[in-house]
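Slide 14.
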Amino acid sequence: MYKPFQKYLEQALFETFELTPSPIPLGLDRNVSERGRSPATIQSWCYRSPEMRKIRYTYIDAGEAAQVFNGVLYPNPCYDAPVLGIDFLSFGKKKILVVMDFQPLFRDEAYLAKYIEPMGEMYDRYGDLAQNLGMKFYDANQYFSKYLLFAKTDEATVASRVFPAFQDYVQSYIQLIKQAEPNHSPASVERIVAAQKAYDQYSAERDPAHGLFTSYFGAEWADRFLYEFLFEDAVQLAASH
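Slide 15: predicted structure.
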């Protein structure tokens, strides 16, 4: 279901940035599960560029049982820009959840005015995909903007509305990064590095996908995938299962 999304993201990134593959820890780049009714394949990609510290995305294909496309784009710490977060999940044709946002690293007014407020016009075009759903695992006031797209939807809407919204958000984010002013001062870079690490820690501790990874690929692999790849700057404080 989300292969066109992956293809579009890759094309947009490769056309814009000089991407270099980043190594993925051994055994985490791809896995196949025979558990459950449908075999599940998980595959991940990771890149970096002068502008982007880490670009990573993952596709889970379990046939009609599950289709998942997840990605996070982290700017180089010389930019204080938000992180781009993408999460599209389909469990059968009736249980579909889409999440997409420029995820702010800071909450001060100047930062939000600079990076988040310009999203308003684009967001208004996709009001049907901003359903103000309750967040079960996350605090909506932390690492989410008020222009978050978050919706339960159906297969037809994924093609007709979610895909155009995805294209808009990706292109807008690319433009944001291209226009961002670098700040190489050690204090600024240190502040951004700390903020991105805090984002990883927060995300790893709350990511509901850990249960999905465990169900298909086992707890040990799921823990490694979460802490060694998805959120590699997070510290695993205790067994997460």
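Speaker note: Residues 155-179 form the longest helix (25 residues).
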